[in-house]
Amino acid sequence: MKKIIFGCLLLCLTTVSAVSAQDYEVYNKLGSDGVFMTKGDQSGFGGVYDTVSGLIHYSRFSVQAQYKLKLDPNGTFDSYSLSGVAEKANVWFRPITGLEVAVGNWFYQALPGAYMLVYDEYTENGWYGKEHVGATFTFAPVTVGANLASMTLNDNFSMKVNFGVNVALAKNLNIGAAYRMDNESIGIFANYGGMDGFYFGGGYTYKGISLPQTFLRDTYKINLSGGNNHVLDFTMSYTTGNFQFAGDAELVITEKDWGTPFYAGGLFNMGITRNINLKADAKWFTVFRDGENENNPWAMELYPRIVFTSGAHELTGGVKFTFRDTNLAKNTSEVKTDFAIPVSWKYTFK
After folding, report:
1. What is the CA radius of gyration of the chain?
2. Are 95 and 101 in contact (CB under 8 A)?
3. Going by C-beta distance under 8 Å and a sequence separation of 6 or more, which residues neighbour residue 279?
4. Is the pLDDT of residue 125 over 50?
5. Model-level pTM?
6. CB-based contacts of 89: which residues, under 8 Å, 6+ apart?
């Protein structure tokens, strides 16, 4: 009950605060990860969620908050549990022109070229600040930033700071670099959108975080060791008329013959009418392992859907398929398939 009250209060607070703001983005999203879904040999209702999100801009500061309330099923779909999480809570201060200071969690200090279009998120290697305290200073065309990633206050004092710099060489051309002290990685990213209909982005990171290894670990609990010495990222899109095509790829070269993680994604978007879009994306994650007695684990997601927009309303419905082979031993390959019917209704306050 406290979580429900908190979510209602957040919605009221963001809506009321937005009235006096110079600019704002406030929405409520109600949906289900699957009105019907399967997990292995079990199936049932996939629960329901409600997300309240607000981003409010004033002349000297911006405030962002996002809270998600979820009713999730257990593994056999015979009982459900209620939980809530504050997904985002941060404040950006602008004390002087060009300087922004962020405090909180899940804010964005990232290089433009590190955004993967199909994956729909920045790579960890180009996202150098997302929580605690961060600051960026822009003196066109250069933006520099720093983030306090961690700090220990005891007899063994330690502090790790991440850094980023981006140069806007032209209106549609950026090149930047990020050094993450928490991972001891350094990456260079660039993006270009100056060609008619085309967009390109990507970069290289030394000792970076592997997207396919992270996905397989977090989603399917497959822990694959390996030092990620070299991470190569690429993303692109082409838009013509009512059609958009996009693709992602990440290749990771590891040390000590620990295999080759690989991710590839594709997206197709078509405007059927002014209010209806057909959208479909596919993502494939794998690790090509080098041992003679090892299988290559992989997972694939396929998600076609229809998006209907009308004024402040956005309705989405589709079918999400997942295919995976998570066996690690050779000659034990077994492809498992699940599917879900996710739906959502998003209302944006104007």
Report:
1. 22
2. yes
3. 267, 268, 269, 270, 304, 305, 306, 307, 318
4. yes
5. 0.89
6. 64, 65, 66, 104, 105, 106
Among residues 234, 144, 127, 233, the alpha carbon closest in space to that of 185 is found at: 127
Per residue in 46-98, pLDDT (tens digit) is: 999 999 999 999 989 999 999 999 999 988 898 999 999 999 999 999 999 99
**SS3 (DSSP) at 90:** strand
Cα separations (Å) of 117 from 126, 236, 239, 343? 14, 7, 13, 22
pLDDT in tens, 161-182: 999 999 999 889 999 999 999 8
DSSP state of 35: S
As to burial, measured by CB atoms within 10 angstroms (0-12 exposed, 13-18 middle, 19+ buried), residue 181 is middle
Taking the C-alpha atoms of residue 132 and residue 147, their distance in angstroms, rounded to an integer, is: 8
Calpha distance 143→264 (Å, rounded): 30
Number of residues assigned to the chain: 350
Q: What is the pLDDT of residues 234-287, one digit of tens each?
A: 999 999 999 999 999 999 998 766 788 999 999 999 999 999 999 999 999 998
Strands 260-271 and 276-288: antiparallel
**Other CB atoms within 10 A of residue 240 CB:** 10
Q: Tokens 């056999």 — which residue?
A: 76
Closest residue by Cα to residue 246 from 270, 262, 230: 270
Mapping DSSP to helix (H, G, I), strand (E, B) and coil, where does residue 26 land?
A: strand
Amino acid at site 99: L
Q: Are 175 and 190 in contact (CB under 8 A)?
A: yes
Alpha-carbon torsion (30, 345, 302, 109), positive or negative: negative
Q: Does residue 6 register a pLDDT over 50?
A: no
Handedness of CA 224, 227, 232, 234 (dihedral sign): positive
Cβ-based neighbour number of residue 99 at 10 Å: 13
257 Cβ contact list (under 8 Å, min separation 6):
290, 291
